[in-house]
Amino acid sequence: QTSIVYSGWLALEETRRTYPSGGERQQAFNGWASQYPEHPGQTLISSGYFLVSGFKLSNISMIAVFLPESGPYGSYAAAIKAGFVAAYNRQEHAGSRPDVRFYDTQQAHISTIYRKAVADGAQLVIGPLNKKYIKELAERNDLSVPVIALNYVEGLVKSNLYQFALSPIDEVQQAVQQAGLAGHKNAIILAPRTTDGQRMSQYLQHAWEASGGNILQVQTFDQKAKDYSFPVRDMLSVNESRARFQQLQKVIGIVEYQPRRRQDIDVIFLAASDKNARLINPHFYHNRAGSVAVYGLAKVYSGYADKNKDMDLEGISFCTIPWLFEESYQGDLSMSSLQDIREQFPQRYLSLIAFGIDAYAVVANINDLATIPYYGATGDLLLNEYNRIARQLVCAKFKNGEATLIQMAEEPEKGIQNRDIFSRNTL
Prior knowledge:
Elements: H1 2-18, H2 23-35, H3 42-46, E1 62-67, H4 74-90, E2 99-104, H5 110-119, E3 124-126, H6 131-140, E4 147-149, E5 161-164, H7 168-181, E6 186-192, H8 195-210, E7 214-221, H9 229-235, H10 238-252, E8 267-270, H11 274-286, E9 293-296, H12 307-310, E10 316-320, H13 339-342, H14 350-361, E11 374-375, E12 380-383, E13 388-392, E14 394-399, E15 402-406, H15 419-423
Helix pairs in contact: 1-2, 4-14, 7-8
């Protein structure tokens, strides 16, 4: 029985790869289902998991974009829209561009908006941004018109639904890859005492342990604190060292004291913003942990070089979007070329502008993304088996106050060497 199940999974995967789309794919899966009637993969077939409809930009005359114009996500959506419109306007041969219509997701229920967009003639939907709306849209509609959602709902898989997000999962996975390739094993996670911080800690812990690493401790800190010496000393066991000294001093009087940190860690995963990290990182050196490798997430770098301030980030490695580095992203819509747009938004919105650029650019490439990466502003984009567009980021390290690109944790696939060729793809 075990061998039949195993061979069934192999046959199912071969079917998926052989028939990427179209009517032949449905027939092939029906044939597989007849051959393996009791196989656990039957639930995937019946759920429509594998029925991904391919589409081509040349066949699309109208795209509907679902974004909020107000509310808590309104300002984020404005930055995404700015990048999206910039990419749309750049497309050569404007006469061949599809019509784009924006729909405000604050004005009606998401299912109502979807049905209206379809009635208006939309052949592709981009958005929504809110995870709740994505889930509701998938649950209440058969998605006859494909949707490229601009966020990621874990565990959600549906025919004609693609999910594209600036997911921290991509950052975590590559930080872990970097640390693992460097030979590190025993880690401490330092994250803010918030819901988001807890989520990042869980991502890091699961990814690190799955790679064979050990998590020795998860330490939290208050984002609003002005002094981070205590949580750093606590995670390095310096406070325990001081307590032992004080106890000894009471017994035998004055003795010479040199604080000691724990010696069993070789890497720290720091889930902190650039502002917090500048205050935290110096404490590693002050507490004799300067030799311990530190890996941050994308938000440790604002995207704007500030050598004086970033001296306090010395030694931190991180992975982020290529758009922040001119030498990494060389497309026509580089960060420097969109200065007028950048100046309209806070620094922390830079990645959202890049996200908007790729939200439009990915449409022309999505049918190929399962096998050929698109080198975009937010990363090298590939469609995984769950219809999520995963991102391969660029990695950097702070050296002498500057974020300097370093070798990526994972080399591009063989035969795909020229980033510039792909980043300049016309839509």
